[in-house]
Amino acid sequence: MAEPPNDWNAQLAVRSRISGDLLEVLPMKGSWTAHEVTLALRLHRPAPHLTLRLFVGNEPMDPRRTLEQLGVTEVQFIQVDYLADQHLNEQWRRMEEDLQHLTPEVLYDLGQERSPPHEDLYLVLRAVALLVQPDSDLSWLSMRRMLCHRGNFRETLRSFCIDDVPFEVLLKFRDTVAKAHFDRDRLRMRNLKAGWLSSWVLVMYQFVAAKLDFYGMGLGYPSLMNPRVFWRFNKSSEPPAI
């Protein structure tokens, strides 16, 4: 197997880091090959009991057979390309609507002391929203944080790095989004009721005003049902014929 150029080795080294017995590696172009995994393991010379965590992209490959030969005993896969899954795509659409109701202050509060700018943090929370799902195992999130760079969302997911963050921050983010979703639905229902009520009152007023105008007892409101009412606001002309 031919070795890639040295600069490619350096890029992969930057995208892979080891902490204790955990090695986390990001793909170069959104999908993994066995060669990339092997090269990352060779760069770090991990212990046989190492846990490898791969962030897979558009076309995830399963390098378990290669990893077993290298002594890796556990592999954790995280699907990043949510567009390939219709359920995640729909879930993300709803999450994106909810995030529009979060203020910059709330977004900043969900970050850490060295949070990126508001636009970057917004992308961070979008990436977190893809992985914080009610039906998923959240144990691995207890010490994880996602930081990303400004730009295209797909490229952002492929370029974010990993740092530590308290688990409570992610839970707070999920609860905040859920509350925003609930508040938005409640506001929609309140506006819907108010809209129906105002329309009903307006129709009834127009009906009553038309009846009173017909009997010469106008309310002084320009009822669309009786052209005589408009004449009261334009005395220079003759009253319209009915």
UniProtKB/TrEMBL annotation:
Protein's name in the database: Uncharacterized protein
The species this protein was found in: Cladocopium goreaui
